[in-house]
Amino acid sequence: MSLLTVRDLRVVIDGLHILHGVDLDVAATGVTALLGRNGAGKTTTVKAVMGLVPRTGTVTFDGTDIGRLPTHRVVRRGIGYAPEDRGVFAHLSVAENLRLAERDPHPAYDLVHELFPELERRRGQPAGTLSGGQQQMVAIARTLLNGNRLIIADEPTKGLAPKIVTEVADVLARAAETVPVLLVEQNLALVRRVAGHCAVLADGRTAHQGDARALLADEDAARRLLGVGAHRPAAPAAPEGGPR
To answer: Which domains does the chain have, with CATH numbers?
Structure first.
């Protein structure tokens, strides 16, 4: 069963056609990975789902059409978003960053502190002084506070050291036991570890949907769709220079 269903999603910004008809199904459990080469349109796709860019097409969340809703109403439907740039408020403390994200009467701080004990220890520290991995923890923690029904994590391991990537992978796997995750990711070793389903974009269109591990086990398909061998760790992702 799909929790989020996207059909014929199209985005035009300043006259530039970025998405040309994306189809995407996000499973109601576990991790669904959104894959593709740099510039394929992955970030634009999740921004369109969130209502952050103008879009046409159909976006259905748990049977309800949300494709015309503004971002704040999409969020209230229960979709948490951890953006690619993490979006922390550098001059505010960790605790203040989390407090700003509170939406439910009883935020799930027990879950957040269980998954991120370091954030509890650093609650008074300015978020701008945290490492990249720690800032990513703040971004994911904010999505877990409010009992969201889906978490979208855009490139959560981008620019992180391998040890921190492993820690983020652990957190995503544990979070997915509670709430499904749509994961935009370039690190195929991480995808192989945590994702069940996947969709691959190419040039603003859906090129493939199916079982993530089956795709990554197929050397020829992985090279054709992703430009890398399935059995080699993906190189660190560079900033997307094409359509976003």
So the answer is: 2-226 (3.40.50.300)
**Inter-residue contact 137 to 171 (CB < 8 Å):** yes
In three-state secondary structure terms, 129 is: helix
Residue 232 pLDDT grade (very low, low, confident, very high; cuts 50, 70, 90): very low
pLDDT digit string, tens, across residues 168-224: 888 888 889 989 999 999 999 999 999 999 999 999 999 999 999 999 999 999 999
At residue 105, the 3 state secondary structure works out as: coil
Pair of tokens at residue 239: 């900033």
For all residues of the chain together, what is the average pLDDT? 90
**Residue 173 token pair:** 């796997």
Q: What is the pTM of this model?
A: 0.88
Q: How many other C-beta atoms are found inside a 10 Å radius of the C-beta of residue 205?
A: 17
CB-based contacts of 183, cutoff 8 Å, min separation 6: 31, 32, 33, 34, 153, 156, 172, 191, 194, 195
Q: Where are the alpha helices (DSSP H) in 82-131?
A: 94-101, 109-115, 117-121
